[in-house]
Write a structure and sequence with these properties.
The chain has 168 residues and is of the alpha+beta class. It is built from four helices and nine strands. Strand 5 and strand 6 form a beta hairpin.
């Protein structure tokens, strides 16, 4: 059995950014809504709605990366703050690996596929023992998977986009 280990550097970055952006966005939203009492403005409402959406996305990402992974011989479990998902390796089709770009570095990310949809992501940005986790996954790897950048963003917010195979 292998358990994931959080990458401390990314943990600090994400916590700091989430805290700062939550405070700043909340203050701006409050200021916009306070301004509505003196005069109605559609722009203030749109600005507050946009910032609320961005704040929701930040907290969704924050929740999504707080996942503990446990891999046994038969299955892989993703324990999140409020729920847990367990997948038997026999039910999964394959995994594929992509690089995620950051400002000064590239990170590897592994995506698990079930029923032609990406169901989970494991990233070297989030986990310090990424290579160990990858080595314990007992399903085949596909190198012919085509996925677009916006699909990878969908995975970050909890959606399960479909994948395609490359045509040669």
């Amino acid at each position: 059995m292998v358990k994931s280990k959080i990458n401390f550097e990314s943990f600090l970055i994400i916590h700091f950014l989430t805290f700062i952006l939550s405070v700043v966005f909340s203050l701006v939203i409050y200021s916009n809504l306070k301004g509505l009492t003196s005069a109605f403005s559609i722009m203030l409402i749109l600005k507050a709605a946009f910032l609320s959406g961005v704040l929701f996305f930040i907290w969704t990402f924050f929740y999504k990366i707080h996942t503990k992974i446990i891999i046994t011989k038969e299955d892989i479990t993703f324990q999140k703050i409020f729920n847990s998902k367990k997948y038997n390796f026999n039910d999964l089709e394959y995994f594929f690996e992509k690089q995620e770009l950051a400002k000064h570095r590239k990170y590897n990310a592994l995506f698990l596929v079930k029923e032609n949809k990406i169901i989970e992501r494991i990233s070297s940005f989030d986990y310090s023992n990424y290579e160990e986790l990858k080595s314990k996954i007992t399903i085949s790897e596909s190198r012919d998977t085509e996925v677009y950048s916006y699909d990878l963003i969908k995975v970050l917010i909890g959606l399960n986009p479909k994948v395609r195979t490359k045509n040669h």
